[in-house]
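> run fold PAS domain-containing protein
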Amino acid sequence: MITARAAATFPPAGRSVATARSFVRDTLQGWGFADIIDDAVVLTSELVTNAVIHAGTSAEVLCLRSGDTVRIEVADRYPEREIPLQHSPGDMGSPDRESGRGLQLCAALAGRWGVEYSPSHKRVWFLMELPDRPVGTRSAGPSLPVALLPVTDGRVRVAVIQIDGAATVSAWNEDAGELFGHQPDQVIGKPLTDLAAWPHTPGTSTGIAEALQLSRWEGSYGIRNAAGRVVPVYASHLRVRDTDGEPSTVCLLVRDHERAVIQTPLRLPAADTGALPDSGPADPFEVFIGSPAPDDLDGLLQRTVERARDMLDADAAFLLLATDDETELEVRASTGLPSARQRFARVPVEAGPGRYGSARMPAVHEDLSVVPGAVPLLIGTGMRSVVTVPLKVEGRLTGSLGVAAESPDRYSNEEALRLQFAADRIALAVESARLGELERLRRGSLSFLVEASDLLAGTLDRDQTLALMAQMTVPTLATWCAVYTIADQASDPFLSYVLHEDEDRIDGLKELLSRIAPPDPVPTPGARVWTAPARAAQEAARGTSRRSFDPESMSVHNTASSVGGETVVLPLVARNRVIGMLTLGRPADDHFRQEILELAEDLSRRAALALDNARLYSERTAISQSLQRSLLPPQTPEIPGVEVEVIYRAAGEGNEVGGDFYDLFPIRDGAYGFAIGDVCGTGPEAAAVTGLARHALRLLAREGFSGPAVLERLNAAILDEGARSRFLTLLYGELWPQEDGSAVLKVVCAGHPLPLRLRQDGTVEAAAEPQPLLGVMDDLELYEQTVTLDPGDVLLCVTDGVTERREGSRMLGDDGLAEVLASSTGLTAGAVAARVMRAVDRFATAAPSDDMAILVMRVPGLQI
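> ok
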């Protein structure tokens, strides 16, 4: 039965693919299907791309929820295009073929999928199910001799605390009061996090608030008792819901050293329920079983180190996983070690002197002070004796498990054998969970990079590209990010953009980074560690502690605490040139995972190309705009006794000059020339003829030629351009203001829309006669006409972009323009131009497709 549905339709445009991905992601997130979002988004992206790009039709996306199952359908309106035929069952052909890739992904990622046809639609659907998440299951352990049972130092108290959906305490039993000294009325209604002394189990990234949302969780943390002291506890959380459907969490807590009371019982395979061969009675800690679900890697690893620590009564334990090339080990879980030895720190596989210098073999060190550096992870921790054993699967090193104690001579070969036996039993489960996590990361990375590429390709603005680079990395890949750019090979790197996941720390981070030299622009691919920010953060923290309180120093100090972790630099290389560096940082004592660094490297390559494209676009746009501005008149001169107003709009994005142009310039004392013209076409080619015409008009007019002579010589110049020539319509005139307040004009209208004269009584008439346009015939015989503008008269000159403004089959035309002008009696030149432009804009809803120029000259009325 369908319990929820969501549908959306996306137009046949490239941007629809990203919009469809966001729609599916938001829908599944709202339904609580986070585990399958990455796979569903990848499949939706491919199928919507097929619809809107390849089929060229709109795409209809439908999400249907039924229990723990989601069905997603993508339909297009191209039913004639059939799916690629399978060569054999389960065979979708070569992955390199040009078609059918979307269906290959469906076959690989979805539980079920199919294609349905109708007369008007083709619908591809796939079905996905949530992975099994067993809740509340426990298994029985073997019977044990009394001597092997855990020892307690008195009555064991188990605190039972219930937490409601708002994360506040709703129940508090008697043992909880005995353990922590708080009575029920003192804690009920308060958040459990208010009582917690530690934010999370050491060595994991799961906080208590997050743990309370999980179906099941076990681990260590601390609770403050009534006296303010921290009581270390071991807790087991189980999430349940009551008969009304309201969720809550039941927490069982014991003192940390009594953890065996509530730890998930260890399970032996059926064949091993008795004693182990040749080893006497079975020790419960001899067998490691990962109680968490197989894909819960962090829980499995943390549970493993907890068990290892208990098994050998150690002060600390740690587990490291090997990198793919088996040259380094990465810390993934630990207990009892300081934070500096925590997750994702790396140590080499081959390290230290002596016989046991490799993690590939079991090793026992009775006293680390004798062989300093034998276990790099434990340097400076106070641990003296340690035993480490490898985790191997089919002979390949997959990790290392170790336990350590603060006193020397605690471990022998017997303990090493016990730990190795346990490691051998858990190695396959750990490797399986690691591969599952790696696969999920790769799928998530694919979705992340697809969306990042779409975002970066969607802009050519440099500042917006920088902002996108930072916003995609924070907080997904890093806690903070800084982007350095390099203008050219002779320039030093410049700090261009800084972002921190805490906005209040951005200014402090920028101040801190400005105090240190930027990283070297090394073109070597891959991430390299940059230690300067961590050193600067430590110096800033020490300096702040010595100074008296002031807001600026405290801001730097707070920022320093979040910059003290690992910092890496990735080069931004585009077209074989380093154009900048992408710097990523983590908080104090934190390290980057290798998978995150590889993802950041992929992102940096895409971001570098996008940034360089934005740079090239900005440079070419600046050059184009500079050249275009040189084609416009530098300024409009003041003409005594005549008001002048000009409005100019060039068609096309980024164009400031097109095929239409205007000019108004002094010829000699008391005489002014004016022109308005239209070159055939738009864009740069038309703009080139515009420059020729405008400069030639000024030169010829100032040489004393009459209007017809000026245009005849301009016509010859245009024809001399040969194949590059374009025909030109032009209205050219000369104006002489008169002492009586009027103005005399001599005009030549060469194929251009006729100028319109508005008299004071509201009548509108053409002020010239049409003559042949320029750039077509060799021999032109042009003549000029004299027009006298009386006080209050207006002369309106426009290009055909105004009169040919269209809305469907309707056109503004000469008559429409005359009506607008007739309603402008008594207005100033600026008001007349604005009214005409407003009428043009309102005539049609679509953006203008042609250049437009409006030139208005008005002789003011006589002052009485």
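Confidence is low (pLDDT under 50) at residues 83-99, 134-142, 200-204, 265-295.
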